[in-house]
Amino acid sequence: MATKEADQLQRTRRSISYSLDELARIVGGEIIGERDITITGVAGIKEARKGELTFLANPKYESYLARTKASAVIANRDGESPRPILKVENPYLAFLKVVSLFAEGPLERYPRGIHGTAIVPESVTVGRDVSIGAYTVIGENVVIADETTILPLACVCDDVKIGSGCLIYPQVTIRERCEIGNNVIVHAGAVIGSDGFGYAKEGSTHQKIPQIGIVRIEDDVEIGANTTVDRATTGVTLIRKGSKIDNLVQIAHNVTVGENSVLAAQVGVSGSTELGSNVVLAGQAGLVGHITIGDGAMVGAQGGVTKSIPPMTRVSGYPAREHTFSRKIYAASTRLPELLREFKKLQERVEALEKGPGSGSATEDD
Fold first, then answer.
1. CATH number of 3-103
2. pLDDT above 70: residue 14
3. pLDDT value of residue 330
4. Could you confirm whether 323 is annotated as catalytic?
């Protein structure tokens, strides 16, 4: 981008502002206090300055309300306040909506077009307003739809299809024939379509099973940094619409992740497991293969899931059990040293009673 164009774009970014009334209409909120305020940015409640909008969602930050320098606060509260309140039902969600108004999207941040060092064969179909960064390698017969951004050093292998509005960060690898939907974000270092872990034992050796399936990622999915999604042995490894996958997650071959599910960091899902919609897997949860996790189920951090989970069930621990029962087991386990001492005392008393009077410390008074 030319220097003059870049300067103009920067001036435009700095000039973005909204009245508090406009923001109230956008997020569907009610203003309590002064209305004639111009908002030029957003920030956390401790860091905010004059002209910026912040939010209060967690009661433990209530004390900062009197000290913040923000011009207004998004909150779910009534009553007196030293700052105007934009009252909404869900302050955090409303704040995220406002943040998006001030954020720079890929179209603004990255120049459109194909960098001179990128390798893009003639067989590639490139849509409108696409950005392909430096030293990126695109394979044969790839299709890249409108307004997608592929940042430097990414590798997109043959016959891949990428939808519109996607953002592919540096050093992402998308293997052959995989399919990416619209508005998908793939963070740095992720690998989509790596071989599934499949081997057949022959004598003392392991023979590799060809992995000839694909990965299909539907619309509005986000894949975290250094996450791997293995291609299917045959068929499809499927990440359904709206799911969010954190960093360092392993999704094995032929797994299905249902719509709007959330997988936190270091989760591992073994092959051919099926997750329903709105499933939540907390950090470091591990799932064996060939099981089903029902819609709305939740697995606690480090939960080890060894069998299928019914819908709307919360489990935790290893092996994963219903969460309330698992908490009771954990609470009881903390008393084991004390219970062991009591058991030893009772054992000594029983042994003494079995030997008869005068043979031990036990007496009739005991």
1. 3.40.1390.10
2. no
3. 84
4. no
